[in-house]
Design brief:
Elements (H helix, E strand, L loop, with lengths): L1 E9 L2 E8 L7 E2 L3 H5 L19 E4 L4 E4 L2 E2 H7 L2 H10 L5 H13 L8 H5 L7 H15 L9 H27 L12 H10 L11 H13 L7 H10 L5 H12 L7 H12 L5 H9 L18 H17 L4 H15 L1 H5 L6 H12 L6 H21 L28
Antiparallel strand pairs: 1-2, 2-3, 4-5, 5-6
Helix pairs in contact: 2-9, 2-14, 3-9, 3-18, 4-7, 6-7, 6-11, 7-8, 7-18, 8-9, 9-14, 9-17, 9-18, 10-11, 10-18, 11-18, 12-17, 14-17
The structure holds carboxymethyl coenzyme *A (CMC).
C-alpha cells in the first residue's frame, strides 16, 4: 500500500516514514519510526491520528460526503431499510433477497430479553435517566452471555452482533416504559424493526387495536439509518479500545453508550431541544446568537470535528422532518425557531469562517419530538441505531490481528523522585 516516504530528520539522521494510501481520503504517514528516533507523537483530541485501518465507513468532511461500505448515506436512507444497512455494515455488502430474509428472521428471533433482566430495571430509581439505565442494562447483558462466549470464534462473534442489534429496541423501549411506570411490552413478530420499537414504546396492554403509523415508522427507520455508523468517532473508538483488551463485547458496547451520552457527541440532540426551549421565541434569537459569539454558550446541533461542510445526514434529516411535520399537520414554533437559527448561522461570518454547519442532531430532535418521543430518550435512540456501527467495528477489529490500544503521553508533572516524610511536608 505504501509507495512513497516522508522523512523525519533528527540530529542529522533520517528516518523514512512510509506514506500509505487508502482507496479514498487523505493518505496517512506511518509514524512507527518515531519510536526508534526517541519520540512519541503529540495529538490532543486525536485530530490527525488514524489508529486503525477500516473498510466500513468513509467520510470526506470537506465535501460533506458519507459512505457506508461505499454507498452514499442519502441513497441508503432513501432506498434501503435500516436492517439492510446493518447487514451491509456487518458483512460488507447489501444483502440479496435470501440473505435479507435470513437476517431479518434472526433479528426477529433474538429480539426478546431474558425475563431476569427486568430485575435490573427495578434496581433503578423510577426517575433515572434512560441513558443511565441503558449503560447499566446493556453492560448487564455481559453477565448473561459470558462463560460460553469465545470472542476468538467467528460464529460466537456473529451471534453477538445479531443479539445486540435485535435486543437494543427492546431494552430502549423498556427503559422508557420503566420511567413511565408502565408495563413492558414485548416485541411482536408481525411488525418490522422500527414498527416494533414504536409499538414497544407507545402501546399498552389495554391497547388491543394498536395500529402502526407508516409515516412515523418509516421516519424512525430513516433516523436509525442516519445514525448507524460514523467511522472512528468518540464512542466507536471507545468500543474499539475496550474491545482491544479482549473484554466482553456487551461490556464494550456499554462503554460506547457511556461515551455517546455527552453533549459534544450523541447527547447533542437532547441539548438542541433544551436550547430551543431556553431561547423560547424567535424574538430572542439575536440575543442568543450574541451569547454564542461571545463563547458563553454553544449553538448545539452545529459544528462537527470532521464535517467542514453540510453534514450529509442533516440534509436527509431535514427532508424527513418536513415529511413528518406535514403528515402530522404539526406547525411547531420550535421549527420556526430552528429555521431562524439555521439561516443566521449560515450567513453570519462567525459561523461561516469556522465552517460551522448544522449536523445530524439539529433536526433529529424536532422529528423525534413530533413522533412523541420524550427528550430524555433522544440519545437512547442514537445508541440503539449506532449499536450496528459499534459492533461492526468490533467485528472488524476481531477479524484481523490487533494490539491492545495503549496511547502515550507528554508528562508535565513533578520530577521529585524522592519521598517526602510526613513530618517534612509543608
Ligand atoms: N457553537 C459555537 N461555536 C462553535 C461551535 C458551536 N456549536 N462548535 C465549534 N465552535 C467554534 C469553537 O469555539 C472554535 O472557535 P475558535 O476557533 O474561535 O476557538 C471553532 O468553532 C472550532 O471548534 P472546535 O471546538 O475546535 O471544534 P471541534 O472539532 O473540537 O468540536 C464539536 C466539534 C462537535 C465538539 C463542536 O462543534 C460542538 O461542540 N458542537 C456542538 C455540539 C454538537 O452539536 N455535537 C454533535 C456532533 S454531531 C453528532 C455526532 O456525530 O456525535
Amino acid at each position: 500500500m505504501s509507495n512513497s516516504n516522508a522523512t523525519l530528520t533528527v540530529d542529522g539522521k533520517d528516518y523514512p516514514l512510509p506514506i500509505i494510501k487508502g482507496t479514498l481520503g487523505r493518505p496517512v504517514i506511518d509514524v512507527a519510526a518515531f519510536q526508534e528516533a526517541g519520540f512519541w507523537t503529540y495529538d490532543p483530541g486525536f485530530k490527525v491520528t488514524a489508529p486503525v485501518e477500516s473498510k466500513i465507513t468513509f467520510i470526506d468532511g470537506g465535501k460533506g460526503e458519507l459512505l457506508h461500505r461505499g454507498y452514499p448515506i442519502d441513497e441508503l436512507a432513501n432506498n434501503a431499510e435500516y436492517l439492510e444497512v446493518c447487514y451491509a455494515l456487518l458483512h460488507g455488502e447489501l444483502p440479496n433477497a435470501e440473505q435479507k430474509t435470513d437476517f431479518y428472521e434472526k433479528i426477529r428471533k433474538h429480539s426478546g430479553v431474558h425475563d431476569q433482566l427486568r430485575r435490573f430495571f427495578e434496581g433503578f430509581r423510577r426517575d433515572a435517566h434512560p441513558m443511565a439505565i441503558m449503560v447499566g442494562v446493556v453492560g448487564a447483558l455481559s453477565a448473561f452471555y459470558h462463560d460460553g462466549l469465545d470472542v476468538s470464534d467467528e460464529k460466537h462473534r456473529e451471534i453477538t452482533a445479531i443479539r445486540l442489534i435485535a435486543k437494543m429496541p427492546t431494552l430502549a423501549a423498556m427503559s422508557y416504559k420503566y420511567s413511565r411506570g408502565e408495563p413492558f411490552m414485548y416485541p411482536r413478530n408481525d411488525f418490522n424493526y422500527a414498527q416494533n420499537f414504536l409499538y414497544m414504546m407507545f402501546a399498552t396492554p389495554a391497547d388491543v387495536d394498536y395500529k402502526d403509523n407508516p409515516v412515523l415508522s418509516n421516519a424512525m427507520d430513516k433516523i436509525f439509518t442516519l445514525h448507524a455508523d460514523h467511522e472512528q468517532n468518540a464512542s466507536t473508538s471507545t468500543v474499539r479500545l475496550a474491545g482491544s483488551t479482549g473484554a466482553n463485547p456487551y461490556a464494550c458496547i456499554a462503554a460506547g453508550i457511556a461515551a455517546l451520552w455527552g453533549p459534544s457527541h450523541g447527547g447533542a440532540n437532547e441539548a438542541v431541544l433544551e436550547m430551543l426551549d431556553e431561547i423560547g421565541t424567535v424574538e430572542n434569537v439575536d440575543e442568543f446568537m450574541e451569547k454564542v459569539k461571545r463563547k458563553e454558550v454553544k449553538l448545539m446541533g452545529f459544528g462537527h470535528r470532521v464535517y467542514k461542510n453540510f453534514d450529509p445526514r442533516a440534509k436527509v434529516m431535514k427532508e424527513t422532518c418536513d415529511e413528518v411535520l406535514g403528515a402530522l399537520g404539526i406547525n411547531d414554533p420550535k421549527l420556526e425557531l430552528a429555521m431562524k437559527l439555521e439561516k443566521i448561522a449560515l450567513e453570519d461570518p462567525y459561523f461561516v469562517e469556522r465552517n460551522l454547519y448544522p449536523n445530524v442532531d439539529f433536526y433529529s430532535g424536532i422529528i423525534l419530538k413530533a413522533i412523541g418521543i420524550p427528550t430524555s430518550m433522544f440519545t437512547v435512540i442514537f445508541a440503539l441505531a449506532r449499536t450496528a456501527g459499534w459492533i461492526s467495528h468490533w467485528l472488524e477489529m476481531h477479524s484481523t490481528p490487533f494490539k491492545i490500544g495503549r496511547p502515550r503521553q507528554l508528562y508535565t508533572g513533578q520530577a521529585r523522585r524522592e519521598f517526602v516524610k510526613l513530618e517534612d511536608r509543608k
